[in-house]
Specification:
single chain; alpha+beta; globular; two-stranded antiparallel sheet
């Protein structure tokens, strides 16, 4: 599968979850025009990228445990520098490889808490 198609599916899934429009597993699969097994693979990919997703059987929908959204793309460097300061730690003067080893999952694409 092309990377662009996978990104598009993740964006659509993210939108469905944030709008509370998923329903049972067959419904988002149908909306995304994929099989249920492909939906489960897509959900696992989202989780691997940091999404905290669960299925709420009471409300019959997928939802984020913590409010978040899928982010993919290029950002101005100034915004990236602001985004990488966490709890007083700045990556400005650190090597990228050491930062990534200490902070896995912080590079795009990712799910950010909103």
């Amino acid at each position: 599968m092309l990377l662009s198609r996978k990104i598009q599916q993740l964006q659509q899934l993210d939108q469905l979850i944030r709008l509370n429009c998923t329903g049972s597993p067959s419904q988002p699969a149908q909306k995304l025009e994929i099989s249920e097994s492909s939906l489960f693979q897509l959900l696992q990919t989202a989780k691997d990228l940091g999404a905290e997703i669960r299925y709420n059987s009471y409300r019959n929908r997928y939802e984020y445990i913590t409010p978040m959204r899928f982010v993919f793309g290029f950002l101005p460097e100034a915004r990236i520098q602001l985004a990488t300061i966490k709890g007083g730690f700045s990556t400005r003067n650190k090597s990228l490889s050491s930062f990534c080893q200490k902070n896995p999952g912080t590079l795009l694409p990712y799910f950010e808490v909103i």
